[in-house]
Amino acid sequence: MAEVSLIEQLTRTACGLAIILFIFIATFSRSPRLERMAQRVLAVVSLVAAALLGYLEYIDGVFYGTTRMNTTLALICAVVAVGANLNIKGENLSHGANPHTIKKLGHVEPRPEGQIIEEE
Q: What is the pLDDT of residues 18-70, one digit of tens each?
């Protein structure tokens, strides 16, 4: 029984670390070196979490009170691990107008203070 509780704790730790890295990945993207490192760490941690979740399913362990979600969460962790290595920085996926780019081009002038904009 000690092995099951140890695996459950390791699984919770790996999943929690993966979530924290996923949340703060934009902070790491300020530096290309840090971003690559964070992507690799996120991929490794997600794969470890997926493996632990799969093993937890095999030994009938419980992950946050349920035994039904282990396989599904393992698959999601594997997808996150693959997606963590996709570097789409610099690609314009939406092809929409970016307000920062428009302002840099000089197409939008800042409005003077005190000007009231009336809605039609």
A: 888 888 887 877 777 888 888 889 899 999 999 988 888 888 878 877 778 88
How many Å apart are CA 42 and CA 25, to the nearest integer?
A: 9
DSSP assignment letter at 31 = S
Residue 98 has pLDDT above 80, yes or no: no
Domain count, the chain: 1
> CB–CB of 78/47 below 8 Å?
yes
Q: Do 21 and 45 contact (CB within 8 A), yes or no?
A: yes
Domain of residue 17, residue span = 2-87
> Is residue 119 in some structural domain?
no
Residues 49 and 2: their CA atoms lie apart, in Å, by 19
Model confidence, pTM: 0.65
Tokens of 36: 């690559």
C-alpha distances in Å from residue 75, one per residue of 47, 51, 100: 10, 10, 37
